[in-house]
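Re: beginner question about structure tokens

> Can someone show what the tokenized structure looks like for a real chain? I only ever see the sequence side.

Sure, here's an example I had lying around. Input first:
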Amino acid sequence: MIDELVPSGRPRVLVVGGKLKHVRKARELGLDVVHVQFPNEYDRGHWPYVDQALLLDYGDIDRLLPLVRALHAAYPFQAAVSLSELGLLPTARINEALGLPGESVETVELLLDKWRMRRQLAAKDLSPVASAVGRSGQDIREFVKTHGLPIIVKPVRESGSLGVFRIRDQADVDVVADRYRSLDDVQWTASDLAFADSFHDFLMEEFLDGPEISVETLSFDGRHVIVAVTDKEVGGTGFVEIGHSQPSGLSAETLGEVRQLVTDFLDAVGLRNGPGHTEVKLTSRGPRIVESHNRIGGDRINELAEIAYGVDMERYALGVGFGLVEPLTTSPEPRGGAAVRFITPEAGRVVEVTGVEEVRADPAYVDLQLDVKPGDDVPPLTWNEDKVGHVIARGATAAEAIANGKRLAAAIHVRTEPVP
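And the corresponding structure tokens:
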């Protein structure tokens, strides 16, 4: 536990990146907040919850660390925390540089770098998956020659289904290699990519058959607690998630295998404290790790856990190290069902949006977010950022929540027409 207090009498936390709700929750827990954020993602809405702010591209570690040292000297904080993908490595480097508690740089790097993760698992004889790093169509052909088809090509780093391709036959090889290399020419913003060199190399993996789930965990000094298992539905290219639900409908036997695999995996990468979001494929050869992150899952998974289990993992991530939240001792029991359904209209220009008020009046409604209006363009569904909104629904069971979510999402009509 952390017992050093700042002069105000309240412990102080440095929150790197994330959303407005994260600094709000930190303040509600009784923490003073120092916030590091991109300038364009900070506004007056943050003011009631933030004591000091450092506004910069926090992915620039060489620029970030000297400024954080100076800020720490003036306004000492007891830990740095991040609940966003882009903030995980900067946060680990801050804690390491200042001698503060937190996940090691080594563990965070293992989770961010999928090739390093695969080699670590191979060394531990855990979740075997054939994989290699490549840079060309020839590299893909050599991998296919050894491991057969289909295979997956994806960034060594990054998340959110960005740049993930499935190669089904030989004709796809050069097409996918060219499409992957073309991602390097896209004008990405600092908040889009965790690493500027994301598309120089790619990871080739054997295709893992079967449905995908994710396992949501909280760890306390190396003791891992499964909070929830999330069932998923994918669409678009086959890798973009269009629906989630909790609690899982898997059999007790399968859930037991998954729980053991994930806790062994978290031990293997050295995760000691805080949240984990681990994606797992239920293959014909047993469950296999896809990837993992030392953060809470995106796509409103935390909201589902709050509804289904009464656990706000964000509050745990922010407050447990300060003794403000009691650690979980066992996995929580479900209180009901929760589901999120993403709104994915046809690509084109939006000409009409209807159904919003009707959905908000529905008894099963929990939350609705819609990010487009008439005149906006909807891109083809290729990665998570292409989704234009979501509906969260509740139910007595997961099956009922899923049905409610689909019904409410279908009631939102986003009509598009081809862009001239």
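Each token stands for a local structural state, so reading them left to right follows the chain. Residues 1-6 have pLDDT under 50 and may be disordered.
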